[in-house]
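ERR on first pass: missing label on line 2. Operator R.T. fixed the label and resubmitted. Corrected input:
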Amino acid sequence: MKTTIALGLGLIASAAQAQNGPADPAVNETFKFAKPAGQPDAIETSPDGQITVQVSTDNDGRAVYMIARNGKAIVEPSRLGMMFTDAPKIERGLKIESVAHAKSDTSWTQPWGEWRTIRDNHREMRVRLMESSALHRRYDVVFRVQDDGVGFRYEFPEQQALPHANIAEELTEFNIAQGGTAWWKPAFLWNREEYLYNRTPINAVGTAATPITMKLDDGTHIAIHEAALVDYASMAVMKTEGNSFKAVLTPGSGAPKVVKTGAWTTPWRTFLIAPDAGGLYMSHLMLNLNEPNTLGDVSWVKPGKFVGVWWKMIKGEWSWARGPRHGATTANVKTYIDFASKYGIPGVLVEGWNIGWDGDWAGNGSAMQFATPAEDFDADALAKYAKSKGVSLIGHHETGGAVSHYESQFDPAFKFAADHGEHVVKTGYVADAGQIERVNADGSVSREWHEGQWMVNHYLRVLQAAAKYKVSIDSHEPVKDTGLRRTYPNWLAREGSRGMEYNAWPGKNPPEHEVNLAFTRMLEGPMDFTPGVLSLTGSDNSPIQSTIAKQLALYVVLYSPVQMAADTPENYAKYPQAFRFIADVPVDWEDSRVLNGEVGDYVTFARRDRKSRDWYVGSITDENARDLTVTLDFLEPGKVYEAQVYKDGPGATYATEARHSIAFETKRVKRGDALTLSLAPGGGQAIRLKAL
Amino acid sequence: MKTTIALGLGLIASAAQAQNGPADPAVNETFKFAKPAGQPDAIETSPDGQITVQVSTDNDGRAVYMIARNGKAIVEPSRLGMMFTDAPKIERGLKIESVAHAKSDTSWTQPWGEWRTIRDNHREMRVRLMESSALHRRYDVVFRVQDDGVGFRYEFPEQQALPHANIAEELTEFNIAQGGTAWWKPAFLWNREEYLYNRTPINAVGTAATPITMKLDDGTHIAIHEAALVDYASMAVMKTEGNSFKAVLTPGSGAPKVVKTGAWTTPWRTFLIAPDAGGLYMSHLMLNLNEPNTLGDVSWVKPGKFVGVWWKMIKGEWSWARGPRHGATTANVKTYIDFASKYGIPGVLVEGWNIGWDGDWAGNGSAMQFATPAEDFDADALAKYAKSKGVSLIGHHETGGAVSHYESQFDPAFKFAADHGEHVVKTGYVADAGQIERVNADGSVSREWHEGQWMVNHYLRVLQAAAKYKVSIDSHEPVKDTGLRRTYPNWLAREGSRGMEYNAWPGKNPPEHEVNLAFTRMLEGPMDFTPGVLSLTGSDNSPIQSTIAKQLALYVVLYSPVQMAADTPENYAKYPQAFRFIADVPVDWEDSRVLNGEVGDYVTFARRDRKSRDWYVGSITDENARDLTVTLDFLEPGKVYEAQVYKDGPGATYATEARHSIAFETKRVKRGDALTLSLAPGGGQAIRLKAL
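pass 2 clean. output:
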């Protein structure tokens, strides 16, 4: 039996194309939907007027929001609310108490990134909601509306009727107003974020990690994600029915998924909204919704390429553990230092350098010592040698999921890194989802999830501990990226999807994988994918489903300020002409453009080096060959460039030995010229446009 | 980075059609799939050899099970496992220690039900698994295989390495091996089980409550559910990718979803498997997997029809609360007693008879007094009057979700019921999902879910408290039915889906709803749907999408041992000829048959009265008219029956005023005769086959 009846809202969103913002009466009349009398309108539009959001309450007093683009619904009325483990949920019986609007148009500078300058032009609407019941609890829902997306978050003030919030679940809904196609990874499975992307109708999504990218029936592209995930649990979206989703927060080991006291806010729930795939990538919404740099001077944060003692371990030829196959020996590392130095690559990653790898460390890392090298790794000598060769070692902290154990060694660990000239440390959390080991104050052990509240905070604790020693972080098995590199510029990159390593093993990444990444994972931020395996072979010489040219293009397509040349020095020696591009390509950009692209099919990026006037172009395709014509309208007028082209050679295809077929070409180009990029199946093309 | 690689299992299940059971070498060779050497085979078949299950371990030592029918996979290798909040999960590194087989073929008697005699013919396989890691934890997975389905459960022995189990999640997977169509309701939404059914491709399911019914591409029908849900959290199935699902347990207010100590078992995870829809209904797997009657003599449990002070409240004409519109007045109840007595209906439900309804009680029932009548309800006089008229009052305990409050009144509440001749009490838990109020020992309040472990146990505590007073229970807003009526025969029925009440309100049940129920909700067990609204009008005279004949047919289609005649006496007075069927139809059956049916389209049931030789036939359809021919091969040979037919009249359709068109016919029939049932759109047909 139920006594309250939820009535559908009569949605009217036919013509909200007014350019004049929320005060415009035309918008109000054409856009608004049914709501109780006596409540203020709560409507906001993007600066260009194309995107409109509205908040209202339904017949049961449940707050709902909706989003439209050019008057057509993108998000149908979707409920807001919050459940607690020890208090009635906040959902029904709400009234809109007040609505406040603001606007802002500013710019800020990224210390490193895809773009130097980020414009933040948005309108803001703050809707104050209060329960009409005895408890009279209240919260604000705050919307930020840009031309390329919408973010909103809950802001709970300190209040007597809710002195603490033990959050059982967030009741936010995402009811997509149209059918379409979705690209998504399942959430809450054992292998965390490391799944291939599904491409299904929106209504065939299961429970998905964010970002989830959708192309709606009317061609609008959207991506649902979150920004500024701090002191809260990461959100997945669970398909309920049809094209409707609800938030599901990641569990922790405690009864509430999130615990809050005093005043608190949720992360921003975000919709990137664009007419095409490229528009999703070009949005700065995620970064704009994060707080500015909190670390002060970050001139010590150094983007850069690196090589590393790694691929041979991944392939099973060397071991992390000590013994006859130990990879991180002084001699081996010297080889890598020499190679890096020779090609101007500033970093050398060394995995397995420390004590703790000998047993079954995955999911069981309590033997890891983060300031104690293995006997055959002469850390002091190598640090000195690296310095003499103008390169730096990159540290490595693999926790094996023993996170409290790691935290207890923060200071010696990062001091050791700093003392050995390591500007960057790669961290690792190899443990199945839900198997992070947390030691409580009483000595008992709890099992945490990589994306639960406690771990979300842990990843930030690492940044803070590292910053004290001017060390930057590249997190593997991380929490997803929600733009926090703005706030913590020493969070250079992370993994958080299937990277190159899967090409070492059976079950390799298919040719579409990197194309999928471009408009899904890469919407989060930098990924340490570790491209550049020019040998195109994994363990036991198993073939990688890529051409060589595609490997090169990945350096432009898959942005990261720390970009690995993942293959071995001896393999690179076999491909000197192709390797030239890896040696040349920068990792820090003045500007970035998406020249073309369809989610999961193909994409072409152009990026301008931050330290020169050179541009770089990278284009990749899935298993289908394509000819893509791009116009060089981004080049400086009147300047001549030398195009150094690395392209799929005759007969190239990912599917046969012809994957090694590559061709090189050099020609002069200028602004406005058109280039046709011929991509082989599973292929790509990389171009350096060197300003002459 | 991941260091362990999950390899797909090479599934070979091409020809497991041997009839000879698990020992047959042909089965082993054709059915088994890859597994580590040195482990015993773990294969079991159904008594008729058509269904085969196998357990193995994958390359990471994860236990997996699979199910095939006639050699064709129904369930692909699906993992087993268990996560804890304070210990490493049990999933990887398992070895099969031993496999034991058993068989059994017995029968038992239902004190009331759809069938008097239940045959339990099954094979059993017990697979003992042990971790090869340091902890050496172990569990058994026990499979029961019938000709019409498979059940399995985890059985954890008492063991030092797992002294208690704080279960964070159960890792059981359900990877359906074929595409097909699914009928399902979303899980974990605010309105609990009260959603319309979705009919979608299997891969478009979201997170579904069980039972979820599927018709696979090869025509096989399956339903996933659970049996014997005791001291555990209810399970939903979350679609992960494609046609794959994983278990999701219902949360509680504590950190673990389930807490166990010593030796413990899960409920049975069940697959009904049949060649057609009717075969799903005819399975006795669910009942067979429950423990026998634990209450001893249950001759005091009385199936029966009832009328009630209810529909006028649901329609908004009367109120539960005291005041001028109060429904449960002495005078009103007398009218219902008189009506029930006149037509031989043994029960009169009265809602709103007690103190506690005056405020906003839904989700907030702490004012409810379960032994204190409202001033205008003379309980003693009415009990006496009812007895004098040969009928009994049916009690009503609405908790409003204040469950600890209710439990504190168990004894006075059930004593009051017994003292007033109430053999049955209808209970209610009107609170949104996750909003059950539990008062802890220290006075703090926790919020529980209707289907979480604590509430699962609460519903059983009610049965035990009621049994002490020889009272039976009809639970509304219940936990789902998992066959526990076998163990607790005083659990007569429950709601647990959208019942008739939704026809009082806007957003009425569509014509397909009851047809959907037949092969989904009704696979659980009895539902107190409350059919029989012959006026076919809800609040404000809004039309119900049914014909009159369909209302009658529902008494045969939707089995319940307590079956309401939900309309008002004054309305029934307008339909005397149709009402005759309601007066005649029994609620307790000797035998039941599904004569035909397609999930969500139509269904015809025949049931034999337990107290006579009469048979009753009920047939219903969705929005489409149909002619269904049934052969009366279930009648006794050589006997003549009078068929009293209640059928859709000329022009009948749910869509217009012609929904009231009904026709009556009487004719003689005998075994082997064929009848053609002509069902109108949204219509039905009811037949009494009176043995002459």
